[in-house]
Write a structure and sequence with these properties.
single chain, alpha+beta, ligand-binding face of the semaphorins, domain 2, Rossmann fold, 6 domains
Length: about 775
């Protein structure tokens, strides 16, 4: 009967397992198979059970989303196992690095979205650590009794700690509060002595003063304690958090030793101000968490806020500091809430009448060493994408607590922590080359830690379309085998246009040794290294690079025959040839297919126009004059050649050379020289005729006199002819008038002196005038003259 029941139970369990596996497989298939998936990276991000098939002949004609599915389904669909992209979780331990308390010290893991990886960290408690104890004492007036008790502790504590430490050292610092209103009385009479109203000499209030670095000389410590005097302030809370942070981060000034256990003992009888309390004093600058000791005094007390609890916890943990709070029993409950927020913290009560400080320090030290816990930190920018779980495995005799630590651990015992790191998603902006996320596992109070480097499998090694190694048959694409670091570097180098340059021109991703270019709304990015595009270069006539080149790395690469930033300039000078076959008439240069005249006075398509130019002949007169003054000897004319821009030669008959187009130079001795300027392929050439035409001064005067007399005679003759013509015309008019008077039988010698003409104005036009009005208009005699 029992056997039958066992078989039945076993069969039921097997059936349940099969059902659960089927349900899980069905959920995985639904999560992976989605029409929204179009790339291998999108497929991997849907879950750790999703895989991608990059076989080129896989399901020809089907939607690309069919390539994403579970491994089992892809195999059933016909995808070869070697063509399935399915990155797995990996955990690699670096065994080359060793440590005495925490192991291992360096771990590398590979995660993909939705996956997790677990590893074990060992923490071993050693025996008789070196110990650095730093007293941080509130010296406000109410702490007088506790300060007196501390003066008797030094030697006794040193002897007691020899049983627990191989090397014990102590230091001292004091604090009160921020020395600003409303925390202190800012009346001039009380700033220097806050206790002046009580006729007691007190120290001025201060945020934190570092008095004595940690030392093994107990005599120096006792001497410092004897010299301490109380101070005073107005409100109850003190500036303890400010002083704690400075004591933690000013490691060099305090004298913390790297190999020692660091104990920070805070003695106070009041609670502490928190971060936002500083705004009461008008202090709004957040605490930067850095050391600001100037002459052993905290210099930013009146300028920066108190640190936050989280900021203080980070600095205490990062600097391997255990904190011991020795507080007045009236404030014990306030600090009970605080110690839960600070790692590696012990809380004890101070007794005013009999000193229990020695026992408090020893008990706190033993308790802190017996509690073993770890803190796991992820980069702030990546904390939302990762999660961490810590499970302690305590040794025999120790007790696991709700805070994830082991209590009552004895020296030489080892505590194991099972740490699981999970990845929720990939970066939104995509992975940068070599990007890793660093997770730090740090045992509280230990100066050793574990560095966990997380590689994120967010991209496929050879899963995208195209960039993969092809077999001789184009039907399949073989993935790159498991790559060593050297192989990975060579693949990345194949995506660089030049050694050390950006991968894929910083405009794409290197996948399996080939660039997959980014998509841009501005246009298309293409090229082997994503170096080309059709939008980032100058446009000419609506075309990139004027249609005469390609846009490469933001610059136009012109086709043969074209130059310029936008490939808009032809190399040919054909468009600049003038009618005489010269480039720009020999007066300019051909730039980008157009003439640029060397002289600003010239213009025109071929520099042929010069409306403001003086005669082109005149521009060469100085050169001709120089040569004529030196004669035609070769030695004397060398000096002129240096000042002339053209080469000078002499010819006998210049008219045949220039076909009648020549210039004249008029010398001082009344001679004329013919010359001609020619632009040849080897440079400008000035031709000067050897023969001159000269006239003497007397002959020149006779010629001038003859011309003058001839002109005068011709002028007088013309005036005489004009006068005769006018007289003849006047006589003809006089004869016609005589004939008219004869026909009318009037005396030719008589001309009437007056004449009358009647002008009638109609009344209907001008009603104010009479019916008729006669106006007599006298006429002047013909011979009268106007006055």
């Amino acid at each position: 009967m029992t056997s039958w029941l066992q078989k039945k139970c076993t069969a039921s369990l097997l059936l349940v397992s099969i059902v659960l596996a089927l349900v899980s497989s069905n959920l995985a298939e639904k999560r992976c198979a989605s029409p929204l998936v179009s790339t291998c990276g999108e497929c991997l991000s849907r879950g750790p059970e999703c895989a991608w098939c990059f076989q080129k002949t896989f399901l020809d004609g089907a939607y690309i989303s069919e390539r994403c599915d579970s491994v089992d389904q892809l195999l059933l669909k016909g995808c070869g196992e070697e063509f399935i992209e399915n990155p797995r979780v990996k955990v690699e331990v670096n065994t080359t690095l060793s440590s005495s308390q925490v192991a291992p010290s360096d771990i590398s893991i590979q995660l993909r979205p939705g996956s997790e990886a677990s590893f074990i960290v060992e923490v071993k408690q050693l025996e008789r650590y070196p110990v650095d104890l730093y007293y941080l004492v509130d010296i406000s007036a109410s702490m007088q009794n506790y300060l007196d008790s501390l003066k008797t502790v030094g030697v006794t504590l040193s002897h007691r700690m020899k049983d627990h430490s191989s090397d014990f050292r102590v230091g001292f610092g004091s604090f009160v509060d921020k020395p600003v209103s409303p925390y202190i009385d800012v009346h001039p009479s009380t700033i220097a002595n806050p206790c002046s109203d009580y006729e007691v000499q007190c120290r001025p209030a201060h945020g934190f003063i570092h008095v004595l670095p940690v030392t093994e000389n107990m005599t120096d410590f006792m001497h410092v304690i004897q010299e301490q005097r109380i101070s005073g302030n107005m409100d109850a809370p003190e500036g303890g958090l400010d002083a704690m942070l400075q004591a933690a981060v000013c490691q060099k000034e305090i004298g913390w030793r790297p190999e020692a256990k660091h104990l920070l003992m805070v003695m106070t009888d009041q609670p502490s101000h928190l971060a936002l309390d500083s705004k009461l004093a008008g202090i709004v600058v957040p605490n930067d968490g850095k050391c600001h000791l100037v002459d052993n005094a905290y210099s930013q007390s009146t300028k920066m806020e108190h640190p936050t609890i989280g900021q203080l916890a980070e600095k205490l943990l990062g600097n391997n500091i255990y904190t011991i709070f020795a507080v007045d029993q009236m404030q014990y409950m306030w600090y009970e809430d605080l110690v839960d927020l600070l790692p590696g913290t012990y809380l004890g009560k101070m007794l005013s009448k009999n000193s229990n400080l020695t026992n408090l320090v020893v008990d706190a030290y033993k308790k802190l060493l017996s509690d073993v816990e770890v803190e796991v930190g992820v980069e702030d920018s990546e904390s939302d994408r990762f999660w961490v779980d810590v499970t302690p495995l305590c040794p025999n005799g120790s007790i696991p607590t709700k805070n994830g630590k082991c209590s009552n651990v004895q020296p030489k015992q080892t505590v194991f922590f099972n740490i699981t790191v999970g990845m929720r998603s990939c970066p939104v902006q995509g992975l940068r080359e070599g990007q890793e996320v660093v997770v730090v596992v740090k045992p509280v109070g230990f100066n050793e830690s574990v560095t966990v480097r997380v590689r994120q499998a967010c991209d496929c090694s050879c899963g995208e379309a195209g960039p993969c190694h092809e077999e001789p048959e184009p039907s399949a694409c073989v993935p790159v085998p498991e790559a060593s670091p050297g192989t990975e570097r060579s693949l990345m180098d194949s995506c660089r246009e030049e050694a050390g340059g950006p991968v894929c021109s910083s405009r794409g991703a290197c996948v399996c040794g080939a660039c997959v270019c980014d998509q841009s709304n501005l246009g298309t990015i293409y090229g082997k290294f994503c170096e080309k595009d059709d939008f980032s270069c100058p446009y000419v006539g609506g075309l990139v690079c004027g249609g005469h080149g390609q846009c490469v790395s933001g610059e136009c690469v012109c086709r043969p025959g074209w130059i310029g930033e936008n490939c808009g300039c032809p190399l040919s000078t054909e468009s600049c040839l003038s009618a005489d076959g010269l480039v720009c008439s020999g007066l300019g240069k051909c730039v980008c297919g157009q003439c640029v005249c060397e002289d600003h006075r010239h213009s025109g398509a071929f520099c042929e126009k010069c409306p403001t130019c003086s005669s082109s002949c005149q521009s060469h007169w100085s050169c001709v004059a120089c040569h004529l003054s030196k004669g035609f000897g070769q030695d004397d004319t060398q000096q002129c050649n240096k000042s002339c821009s053209s080469l000078v030669s002499y010819v006998d008959d210049i008219t045949e050379l220039v076909r009648g187009k020549y210039c004249l130079y008029h010398s001082r001795d009344q001679c004329f020289f013919r010359f001609h300027m020619e632009v040849a392929s080897h440079g400008p050439q000035l031709h000067i005729s050897r023969h001159a035409e000269c006239v003497s001064g007397q002959h020149n005067f006779k010629t001038f006199l003859s011309v003058f007399l001839l002109t005068l005679v011709l002028g007088l003759g013309i005036l005489t002819v004009i006068r005769l013509l006018l007289w003849n015309r006047s006589w003809m008019w006089s004869g016609k008038d005589s004939e008219q008077f004869d026909d009318n039988n009037k005396n030719h010698s008589y001309a009437p002196t007056t004449n009358e003409k009647t002008i009638t104005y109609r009344r209907d036009c001008l009603p104010e005038l009479p019916m008729e009005m006669h106006v007599h208009v006298p006429k002047m005699p013909l011979n009268d003259i106007w006055p």
